[in-house]
């Protein structure tokens, strides 16, 4: 390349600054547009649609007129969502929202503790990869199958759970657990815990693996016993993961649908005894009588409960 | 010397210690010398201590307990209904049959064979397109500043928090509008739109870890942005893309709600959709359900076992980053 | 205070596939500053961890003041340890970190605060008391780790490459500080490093290790002046000792065309102790004189100047002798590349090693 060429190239570059900027802008657009279009049409759009639609009256699938908070008030007054009478008497059905929150209250803490416990149990064992994979297996399985497996376990004849009861002398308790209105929800929550524990264990395991081993050794040299080492070193260092575990648990539970559908169909069990919000959305939106307004409100309630938590996780990082 | 302050097993005179102190280099063995211990001592040394043994016992019990339900499902899938109802855990005089599988494969309402094919037809494009478009969109998110970036970020987080039910109504109407309701394409599009959010966020976080210098070097070598993306970014993101592929595949394959809403013709049913139909009216056909379930879950479970590392890393990174 | 004895201590990993330490025998006197020196992977850190109780010996015994301690947990040994990466607890402040060992021992809060303050002011970190470790510089972290170690008044002080993460200037500073600390407290100290300068400047005695075993135990001066093997000779000193391979002939060592050295010069013990065959002659670079004229009277080794590296303080002349390169460290020189030169040295500065690399004396 001659000197002349160099200078030419430099000049060309000099005047090309806006050109470079434009080219960069074009590149950004080319990279972003295809993905964002589909994301906009099939994810953001429908959410906005639901948010707006929840303030309108609907005729089947067709939007009609603005009705303010009508759908919202109607939905919260609906005993299928919150059944105050039954809540006060602690009888199922208590409404999908109440039942969904009961899931949160039981499922999340128990699966978190079990996950942590198992992560700690497996942490220094040979073959821990296999053990972890065994516990995690349920999380990779389609949740509809989890629901069917639960029905199978709880079956009065073929179910191993009832067999277990018979073996330990509680034969009187044998029943079809998923179809007994007053206990079915607990049986299903146990199933949810069974699946989620694997996921929580995975998160805790990776948090434990990230702890610098010399910290533990240092505590050992400092004279800390097993128990102290856990409370003073390990636990404070895995505590941040607990927030993630708990919030992911809540998100998972607020979305729970397949398990309940498998056990109780679109009604959410006999007399809606263990229906959850997702089930109510499905029935309101896609089974006659169609009530799009209510479906949208319920789905938004699901979002409103978890959105701040998701933002909290995002903030944390 | 300090010898008089302690009483070791065989006190060595200081003088002989001086000459013995240093081993000649060839005295150092490559591996531990075989010990002269008798079998019992060696065995005792090889067996872990009691508390540790107990720990193993608990760990294995727990892990086995965790897969007992699947074990039952697996056993049931090979046995006639009568034996299942008597309890799959009774193994004496067990009859092994493939009848459940053949019946499920050609199940009259919606044959599993067809349903599995449908599932594959929906899953593969939904995964590949999400990977490509997701990687493309993640690149500017990781590298450039552009207007509305924060807003888009917020929207992605919002969608990730949203339940699938929330987008069902809007998508139902959209697909009817554009005539893609109850079609492969419609379901694929819904899955792509739904998966893009987390994929973009996930890949963006990964791309942030790739040194910018590599791209700068490529630019100095004269590569365009598109060439950089194709020849630098994509190859370097392979591990993350594999993670995306496994997780997205599992999600789409396992999805039940979206097919339930958007696939209405029995010949278009996806495998997870068919399974609850098999439970029947009066007596649940456990063998049939089990065989169908095993066939359906075999694919994601196999994928998980093969790509376990990517799956686990991906799941952890997706939720903690 | 504590005196440590290691007796035939071996440590194997991977079911005996890896030998980390093999038959270590060592006495550490009460209040002594001992340095384990060796290249990476030589087993020095494992040896330290055996003393700490973080590992149990596969064979052999360890005694603290005559009490057998192997098999006891670290907390029963009253040792303090500073880790290579300092191992500061990231979720505790500096003061909490320093207080942690006392908290575990159940020292009452008043006394704890007093001792923590004392340790922190001893190491000049009292201003950092409320900061988390992440906000500290490398040197400050180092001091916190030291404060945490001394606060409990341990009987043994173990340091695992504590200066390796610091820059050169800070390393120098901390080196003298550590030495002052050890002098003042008089705690038996074992210090692991791969840096010979650190070892030579701080230790009462240096334990040179290689391939999992002890090569030589000696005070720094002796280690320099009487390296027991070729390997040690090469490991100590910068640049390392020259080792010229030659053949022992009648009464002298022949270096082929480079000349020969009269044997009587280097082995006062008499000719009988030097076996026939291949031997190595060791001379430190700083003990070699480079001359351009053949010296009269004494035998000299002949060579050609390969390169000259003037380093200001001194100059290193690399001389090709037969097919080997000899380094000479001289204060100044006028020689140039390709010059023919003669290397001479004092009788006392020369060492002879046999075929196995053992010092002949």
TrEMBL record, chain A:
It comes from the Archaea. InterPro entries: ABC_transporter_permease, MetI-like, MetI-like_sf. It is a multi-pass membrane protein. It comes from Natrialba swarupiae. GO terms for cellular component: plasma membrane. This is Sugar ABC transporter permease. Residues 97-313 form the ABC transmembrane type-1 domain. PANTHER family: ABC TRANSPORTER PERMEASE PROTEIN, DIACETYLCHITOBIOSE UPTAKE SYSTEM PERMEASE PROTEIN NGCF. It is found in: Cell membrane.
UniProtKB/TrEMBL annotation, chain B:
The chain crosses the membrane at residues 56-78, 115-139, 151-172, 184-207, 228-253, 286-307. Keywords: Cell membrane, Membrane, Transmembrane, Transmembrane helix, Transport. GO terms for cellular component: plasma membrane. CDD domains: TM_PBP2. The keyword Transmembrane applies. It is a multi-pass membrane protein. InterPro entries: MetI-like, MetI-like_sf. Residues 116-307 form the ABC transmembrane type-1 domain. Residues 1-36 are annotated as: Disordered. Its main location: membrane. The keyword Transmembrane helix applies. It is found in: Cell membrane. Gene3D superfamilies: MetI-like (1.10.3720.10). GO terms for biological process: transmembrane transport. It comes from the Archaea. Belongs to the binding-protein-dependent transport system permease family. This is Carbohydrate ABC transporter permease. The lineage of its organism: Archaea, Methanobacteriati, Methanobacteriota, Stenosarchaea group, Halobacteria.
């Amino acid at each position: 390349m001659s000197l002349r060429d160099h200078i030419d190239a430099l000049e060309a570059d000099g005047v090309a600054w806006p050109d470079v900027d434009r080219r960069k802008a074009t590149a950004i657009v080319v990279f972003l547009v295809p993905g964002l279009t589909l994301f906009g049409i099939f994810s953001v759009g429908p959410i906005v649609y639901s948010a707006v639609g929840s303030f309108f009256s609907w005729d089947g699938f067709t939007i009609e007129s603005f009705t303010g908070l009508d759908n919202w008030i109607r939905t919260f007054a609906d005993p299928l969502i919150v059944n105050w009478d039954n809540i006060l008497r602690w009888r199922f059905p208590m409404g999908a929202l109440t039942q969904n929150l009961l899931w949160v209250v039981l499922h999340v803490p128990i699966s978190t503790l079990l996950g942590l416990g198992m992560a700690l149990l497996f942490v220094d064992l040979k073959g821990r990869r296999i053990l972890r994979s065994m516990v995690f297996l349920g999380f990779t399985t389609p949740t509809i199958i989890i629901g069917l497996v639960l029905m199978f376990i709880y079956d009065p004849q073929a179910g191993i759970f009832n067999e277990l009861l018979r073996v330990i002398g509680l034969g009187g308790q044998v029943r079809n657990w998923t179809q007994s209105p007053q206990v079915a929800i607990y049986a299903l929550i146990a199933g949810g815990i069974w699946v989620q524990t694997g996921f929580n264990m995975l998160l805790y395991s990776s948090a434990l693996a990230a702890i610098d081993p010399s910290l533990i050794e240092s505590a050992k040299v400092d004279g800390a016993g097993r128990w102290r080492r856990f409370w003073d070193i390990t636990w404070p260092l895995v505590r941040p993961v607990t927030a993630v575990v708990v919030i992911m648990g809540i998100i998972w539970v607020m979305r729970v649908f397949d398990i309940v559908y498998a056990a109780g169909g679109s009604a959410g069990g006999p007399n809606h005894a263990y229906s959850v919000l997702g089930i109510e959305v499905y029935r309101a939106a896609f089974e006659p009588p169609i009530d799009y307004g209510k479906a949208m409100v319920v789905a938004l309630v699901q979002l409103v409960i978890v959105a701040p938590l998701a933002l909290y996780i995002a903030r944390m990082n | 010397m300090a010898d008089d302050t302690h009483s070791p097993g065989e006190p060595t005179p200081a003088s002989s210690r001086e000459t013995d102190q240093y081993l000649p280099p060839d005295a150092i063995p490559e591996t531990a010398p075989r010990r002269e211990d008798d079998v019992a001592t060696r065995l005792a040394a090889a067996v872990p201590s009691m508390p540790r043994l107990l720990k193993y016992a608990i760990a294995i019990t727990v892990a086995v307990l965790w897969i007992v339900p699947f074990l039952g499902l697996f056993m049931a899938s090979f046995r006639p209904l009568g034996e299942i109802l008597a309890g799959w855990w009774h193994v004496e005089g067990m009859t092994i049959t493939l009848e459940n599988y053949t019946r499920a494969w050609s199940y009259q309402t919606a044959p599993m064979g067809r349903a599995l094919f449908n599932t594959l037809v929906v899953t593969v494009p939904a995964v590949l397109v999400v990977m490509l478009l997701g990687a493309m969109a993640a690149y500017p998110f990781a590298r450039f500043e552009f207007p509305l970036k924060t807003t888009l970020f917020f929207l992605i987080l919002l969608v990730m928090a949203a339940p699938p039910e929330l987008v069902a109504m809007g998508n139902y109407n959209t697909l009817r509008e554009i005539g893609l309701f109850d079609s492969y394409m419609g379901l694929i599009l819904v899955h792509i739109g739904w998966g893009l959010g987390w994929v973009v966020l996930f890949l963006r976080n990964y791309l942030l870890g790739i040194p910018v210098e590599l791209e700068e070097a490529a630019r100095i070598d004269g590569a365009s942005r598109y060439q950089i993306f194709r020849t630098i970014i994509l190859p370097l993101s392979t591990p993350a893309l594999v993670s995306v592929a496994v997780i997205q595949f599992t999600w789409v394959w396992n999805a039940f709600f979206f097919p339930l809403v958007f696939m209405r013709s029995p010949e278009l049913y996806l495998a997870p959709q068919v399974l609850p139909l098999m439970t029947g009216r009066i007596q649940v056909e456990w063998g049939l359900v089990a065989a169908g379930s095993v066939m359906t879950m075999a694919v994601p479970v196999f994928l998980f076992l093969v790509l376990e590392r990517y799956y686990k890393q991906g799941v952890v990174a997706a939720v903690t980053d | 205070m504590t005196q440590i004895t290691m007796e035939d201590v071996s440590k194997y990993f991977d079911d005996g596939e890896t030998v980390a330490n093999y038959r270590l025998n060592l006495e550490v006197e009460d209040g002594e500053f001992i340095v384990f020196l060796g290249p990476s992977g030589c087993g020095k850190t494992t040896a330290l961890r055996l003393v700490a109780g973080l590992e149990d010996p596969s064979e052999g015994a360890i005694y603290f003041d005559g009490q057998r301690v192997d098999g006891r947990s670290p907390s029963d040994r009253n040792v303090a340890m500073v880790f290579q990466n300092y191992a500061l607890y990231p979720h505790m402040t500096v003061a909490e970190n320093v207080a942690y060992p006392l908290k575990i021992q159940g020292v009452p809060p008043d006394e704890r605060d007093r001792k923590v303050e004392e340790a922190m002011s001893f190491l000049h970190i009292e201003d950092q008391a409320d900061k988390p470790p992440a906000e500290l510089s490398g040197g400050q972290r180092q001091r916190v780790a030291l404060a945490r170690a001394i606060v409990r008044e341990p009987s043994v002080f173990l340091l695992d490459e504590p200066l390796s993460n610091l820059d050169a200037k800070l390393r120098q500073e901390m080196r003298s500080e550590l030495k002052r600390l050890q002098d003042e407290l008089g705690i038996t100290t074992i210090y692991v490093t791969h840096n010979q300068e650190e070892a030579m400047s701080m230790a009462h005695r240096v334990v040179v290790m290689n391939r999992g075993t002890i090569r030589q135990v000696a005070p720094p001066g002796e280690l320099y002046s009487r390296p027991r093997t070729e390997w040690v000779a090469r490991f100590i000193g910068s640049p390392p000792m020259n080792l010229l391979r030659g053949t022992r002939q009648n009464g002298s060592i022949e270096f082929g065309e480079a000349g020969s050295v009269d044997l009587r010069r280097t082995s006062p013990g008499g000719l009988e102790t030097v076996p026939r065959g291949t031997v190595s002659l060791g001379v430190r670079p700083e003990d070699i004189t480079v001359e351009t004229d053949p010296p009269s009277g004494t035998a000299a080794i002949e060579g050609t100047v390969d390169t000259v590296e003037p380093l200001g303080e001194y100059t290193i002349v690399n001389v090709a002798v037969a097919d080997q390169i000899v380094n000479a460290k001289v204060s100044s020189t006028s020689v140039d590349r390709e010059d023919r030169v003669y290397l001479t040295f004092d009788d006392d500065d020369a060492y002879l090693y046999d075929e196995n690399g053992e010092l002949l004396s």
